[in-house]
Design brief:
The complex is a heterodimer.
Chain A lengths: L9 H4 L11 H30 L7 H4 L2 E2 L3 E2 L4 H25 L3 H31 L5 E3 L5 E7 L3 E8 L9 E2 L3 H11 L2 E2 L2 E3 L5 E6 L3 E9 L11 E2 H12 L7 E2 L12 H33 L2 H5 L3 H26 L1
Antiparallel strand pairs in A: 1-2, 3-4, 3-12, 4-10, 5-6, 5-9, 7-8, 8-9, 10-11
Helix pairs in contact in A: 2-8, 2-10, 4-5, 4-10, 5-8, 8-10
Chain B lengths: L16 H31 L7 H23 L7 H36 L2
Helix pairs in contact in B: 1-2
Classes of the chains: A alpha+beta, B mainly alpha.
Chain lengths: 341, 122
């Protein structure tokens, strides 16, 4: 076949009857698709950079926003995202090993590495689900507007709420009743609505209860927006002083002084656009990973049924591999521009 | 009549065991390198604050390391390094021109608009 000639001569290469790129149609089309998809992601990340540069409010810092680990709690800056990056790199490696096995017509090898790649993909998707859930629910302290008008994010260990003891009866609760369920949710809901006052919570049914809460530890306020007294980048506010300022604001009885987590309208981390970009960019990437896992499963089925072996080559694995590596490639950039910088 | 001018699959779609061993060795090497770079980035990212004097240096370092990682992924994992130079250039050169330009424009414009907004209400 003409296209398979090994001699490559610059004069005849572009003279027709030969593929100048010396590559198959399918692979070339996959590359063209990836080129256009890469432009889409470039566009998104550049839009993020644009917004970050024109923003007046302090932009969130990756190591402050993403410092939680499953089962371990807070205080592990960027470790979880690094783990996610590692998972994706490893699954990219197992993919390239599958492609290599395919070149040797080693069907068993391809099967083994394709299964590993699919598992890696699921691990990454699971991690991302955890990360999203954590981002949406936010921290236990939230972001708070202090009495002088400055806005601060809070670091430290939140003392556990053990129970509420009802001291004024409402429609549902009698005096003396002890509430032990759904405490954190009720507490945060009341805080957002300004239904807290010094050590007391106004419940939804009109009852007033005393909050039995353990002490907080190592509290630290990081100012994100200037107020009359506290400025961005000013002296660190820690310990008793931080607790005093935080609870003054929390128990002020004003609405919307505190924000927990993130939604489409507001978030505790920074400007509104920050969460929107987070959802869109990591979501769009996550959707690519999801499609990639589905495609990998389909290819794995093809490998198992021997379709590619009969065909005499494993190019389908190679083409899917290109897509899967691309997903990894995009994550490398998202990791840098969203989490590190 | 069967066409003989269409390539069904790549030219270098097969290799023997010895070559495979060599390729796998390279893959493992790149894996270790990528992991090491990621760990290094996280340590630096967690250790050096954005308010630090070194931050602008760190920023440039991060971007260079990212490009290095991307280079290894594209050239080794995606085998673009083994493709014909024509194909390589068709894929890569648009980025160096177009995306570099877009980054420049977006950041300059973003900063300019930001400074306008900052002075608008005074």
């Amino acid at each position: 076949m003409a296209g398979h000639s090994a001699q490559l001569d610059a004069k005849t290469l572009w003279g027709g009857k030969e593929s100048p790129f010396q590559t198959s149609y399918g692979k070339l089309m996959m590359w063209f698709f990836l080129v256009s998809d890469a432009l889409t992601f470039s566009g998104l990340l550049i839009a993020y950079g644009f917004t970050r540069h024109d923003s007046q409010d302090a932009w969130p810092i990756g190591e402050e926003t993403f410092n939680s680990m499953p089962f371990l709690g807070h205080g592990y800056p960027l470790l979880y995202v690094a783990l996610m990056t590692f998972i994706l790199i490893v699954s990219s490696v197992t993919m390239v090993l599958a492609v290599e096995a395919g070149h040797r017509m080693d069907r068993k090898g391809v099967t083994k590495w394709m299964i590993a790649t699919v598992i890696g993909g699921f691990f990454f998707l699971g991690s991302q689900a955890w990360e999203w859930s954590h981002f949406i629910h936010g921290s236990e302290f939230g972001k708070i507007e202090l009495n002088d008008g400055s806005v601060a994010i809070v670091k430290g260990h939140f003392g556990e709420i053990n129970s509420f003891t009802v001291i004024e009866a409402g429609k549902k609760h009698k005096v003396g009743a002890v509430i032990k369920e759904d405490l954190m949710h009720q507490f945060q809901h009341a805080a957002e609505l300004g239904h807290l006052e010094a050590g007391k919570i106004h419940l939804a049914d009109g009852a007033v209860a005393k909050i039995n809460k353990a002490a907080d530890h190592e509290m630290k306020l990081i100012i994100k927006k200037d107020g009359k007294l506290h400025k961005v980048g000013g002296k660190e506010i820690t310990g008793k002083q931080a607790e005093k300022l935080y609870y003054e604001a929390l128990y002020s009885g004003d609405k919307h002084r505190v924000i927990y987590g993130a939604n489409m309208k507001q978030n505790e981390y920074g400007p509104q656009q920050y969460a929107q970009f987070f959802f869109f960019i990591t979501g769009f990437h996550g959707f690519h990973v999801f499609s990639g896992v589905i495609i990998n499963i389909l290819i794995l089925l093809g490998v198992l049924s021997g379709t590619y072996h009969k065909r005499g080559h494993y190019e389908m694995v190679e083409k899917t591999g290109l897509y899967w590596h691309f997903v990894d490639l995009v994550w490398v950039f998202v990791f840098t521009f969203f989490y590190l910088l | 009549m069967e066409r003989d001018d269409l390539i069904e699959y790549s030219l270098h779609a097969h290799h023997d065991d010895a070559k495979g061993k060599e390729i796998r060795k390279k893959i493992y090497k790149v894996t270790i390198l990528l992991t090491a770079i990621t760990i290094f980035e996280v340590i630096i990212g967690a250790g050096i604050k954005q308010s630090s004097d070194y931050w602008s240096t760190v920023k440039v370092l991060f971007i260079l390391l990212t490009l290095l990682k991307a280079g290894y992924i594209v050239m080794v994992f995606m085998h673009l390094g083994d493709e014909r130079p024509y194909l390589r250039n068709v894929i890569l050169i648009p980025y160096f021109i177009f995306v570099a330009y877009l980054i420049f424009i977006a950041l300059v414009e973003g900063t300019a608009i930001g400074s306008v907004w900052a002075t608008m209400w005074q």
